[in-house]
Amino acid sequence: MEFQAETKRLLSIVANSLYTDKEVFVRELVSNASDALEKRRYAALTGGGGGGEEAGSNMEISITTNKDANTLTIADTGIGMSREELIDNLGTIARSGTKAFAQNLQEKGEAAANVIGQFGVGFYAVFMVADEVTVYSRKHGSDVAHCWRSTGDGSYALSEATNVEPGTTIVLKLKSTETNFSQRFHIEQNIRKYSNFVGFPITVDGTRVNTLEALWTKSKNEVTVEQHADFYRYVAQAFDDPRYTLHFQADSPLSIRALFYVPQSHMEKWGMARQDRGVHLYSRKVLIQSRCETLLPEWMRFLKGVVDSEDLPLNISRETMQDSLLMRKLSTVLAKRVVKFLQERAKIDQAAFISFYQEFGQYLKEGVYTDFDNKHEIAKLLRFESSRGTPGELISLDDYVGRMKPEQGDEIFWLLAPSRDSALSSAYMESFKAKGVEVLLLYSTVDEFVMTNLMQYSGKSLISAEAAKLAVEDSSASGAAKLSVEEAKGLQEWMTKAVDGVKEVKLSSRLVDSPAIVVGHESASMRRMMTMVESGRA
Ligand code: ADP
Ligand code: MG
């Protein structure tokens, strides 16, 4: 037997329990209007009638607010609906005329139309905010118009109407609690948030609202630097120009259109709270999630931009994704592309990259120890000062590896110190200096954390200079007198007792100028942390 439906209940569920935010009803109506215009354009192109030869002119969505009457009107000059279509599409829950339209095109082997609707429930979102909804519709090419009216209680009235232009006009009599939506300012904001990139002009009380183009859908060489800068300022709510621009498009395994911008600066370095994500998820130019958290690894939160994928299996409220596996796939592709992009930039313009690194290096370091999938690729982007370079000069791990000495074996050395001077004059540096072996200089505990977390780079171990066992064979060059075996033994025994906390004293050949160093202890930063704990500051 067939299932029956409690239509009244079902309608109430669809209208009231589907969405987290009431405000999305505007997005749903605007999306429907956009779909109707798209269908009209298609009809005109194919000469299939209905569209009329005049398609292309007056294609628009006009919204009018009336604060006094507490109404909101959304009118489009799209394809319109016949009597049957009103019954089929608005009178049948979960029936999508748009989906049928897109499928029809697909079956004919034509390019997928740029339409948004698919579930056949978006329209009913109006009942979250409206007591009564009236739809006037006249199909393009037809002389008859109809009026569809419902209070969302399970039934609707349908009659013929006069004085209706081709297209569809929807009038919402708003609930007395929803006066926001009859205010122009509020609706304008809503359009800017969700529907700013809809491909047809949208006006609110006669003023054009959506003036920005969906740049990400255009091909790369069609977009100018100026357009990118404008778009960046919109999406990042910034006033400067982007430092880097990545326009990324892929068709398989997923259709992806993405725009990523790296700003000039960020606030976290001033000790401000961790910033929110800056990349928004769109599907077919309509906002799905702003500041989407599942799109990119967290360390990429400094990026601003937009990702649009029409393949996304949206859940029915169009607020999230149904398929988290696909979402992860998308995220993997995007993250890898961003890292590759930064690697390319580092090669193309080193100076610009160093400037980027100085501003955003902390995020890359965070990436090394939080982004397991990409850590080794991110490590290629790290830059450090080195004992061989000049003050302020930054080198990559690849630079270092490229000039390693054979006697280093497979070891990359680093030393954590408060400053370059103290690093270079440290006793730990003596044997490295004597042998001409390069040491990377780290000035922050985060760097040390990154090194110990990374452990290896291109098959070589990352070793602290404090723990290194690099011997200097010809330390007798100075001709200084050496201790006899007995004398040395005596000194060792004496020192073990004399110096508190010393476990063992060994003879070493790694020192050149200093008489002794401490080895095998916890790291300098650990020591600092311990003193802080002891003095009660941590
Ligand atoms: P969806 O957009 O997912 O199909 P909706 O509930 O939003 O679902 O709309 C149902 C159907 O009603 C649409 O598929 C479309 O056929 C029709 N429709 C809705 N609004 C309009 C409109 N403004 N102009 C023409 N047809 C419309
Ligand atoms: Mg819809």
UniProtKB/TrEMBL annotation:
Gene Ontology MF terms: ATP binding; ATP hydrolysis activity; ATP-dependent protein folding chaperone; unfolded protein binding
Domain Histidine kinase/HSP90-like ATPase: 21-178
Primary site of residence: cytoplasm
GO cellular component terms given for this protein: cytoplasm
InterPro entries: HATPase_C_sf (IPR036890), HATPase_dom (IPR003594), HSP90_C (IPR037196), Hsp90_fam (IPR001404), Hsp90_N (IPR020575), Ribosomal_Su5_D2-typ_SF (IPR020568)
Keyword vocabulary terms for this entry: ATP-binding, Chaperone, Cytoplasm, Nucleotide-binding, Stress response
Binding site for ATP: 28, 32, 76, 81, 89, 96-97, 118-123, 168, 318
Localisation: Cytoplasm
HAMAP family reported for this sequence: HSP90
Stated family: Belongs to the heat shock protein 90 family.
Protein name: Heat shock protein hsp90
Species whose genome carries this gene: Chrysochromulina tobinii
Lineage: Eukaryota, Haptista, Haptophyta, Prymnesiophyceae, Prymnesiales
